[in-house]
Write a structure and sequence with these properties.
single chain, Diaminopimelate Epimerase, Chain A, domain 1
């Protein structure tokens, strides 16, 4: 994220609203993303969760919270860290900051590393810049799924430990 004046950033977030998410992600697009998560999780034993936030809460802006810090907070709050094989992955979009963050539990992070996640984020951000919001998220799900499939093959009895529903904040 490039530096931005704190007051300008505060206004961007203060004027953001979940309606902006719906302007970029139709109900059908959200259903397609949820379906992509569900279908992808058939190919591995990992868990993927998507959170889209129009802007950070006022307290977060006042404390200077970065999108990365917010993603880590949500990773814990949503219990993504609590999967049986430590292989939960959060895709977090902060629209006001135009930022994508991927936070992965230690089981899969150990295999992929921050550089691997950053590469996926950069590709997604490029797709978003060209207006391909749904396709960008689906790309992220597929790219993460490839890593999960390589290190966490599907289980004989599949389970769904985390909701596949896109969370809009």
């Amino acid at each position: 994220m490039k530096p931005i004046h704190p007051l300008k950033r505060w206004f961007k977030h203060a004027w953001s609203h979940p309606r902006q998410v719906k302007a970029l992600f139709s109900a059908q697009a959200l259903a397609n993303i949820e379906n992509a998560i569900s279908q992808n999780e058939h190919h591995h034993a990992g868990e993927i969760r998507v959170v889209i936030e129009s802007g950070l809460p006022a307290y977060a802006i006042l404390r200077g919270l970065t999108p990365r810090q917010r993603a880590i907070h949500l990773f814990g709050q949503l219990n993504i860290w609590d999967t049986e094989h430590n292989n939960g992955v959060l895709i977090y979009l902060c629209l006001a900051d135009q930022d994508v963050e991927i936070v992965a539990d230690r089981g899969i992070h150990r295999q992929v590393g921050q550089a691997g996640w950053q590469q996926i984020c950069q590709q997604m951000e490029g797709m978003f810049r060209s207006g391909q919001f749904e396709a960008g998220v689906v790309y992220g799900i597929q790219a993460i799924g490839q890593h999960l499939a390589a290190h966490f093959p599907p289980e004989a009895v599949p389970r769904n430990e985390l909701s596949n529903r896109v969370l809009i904040l």
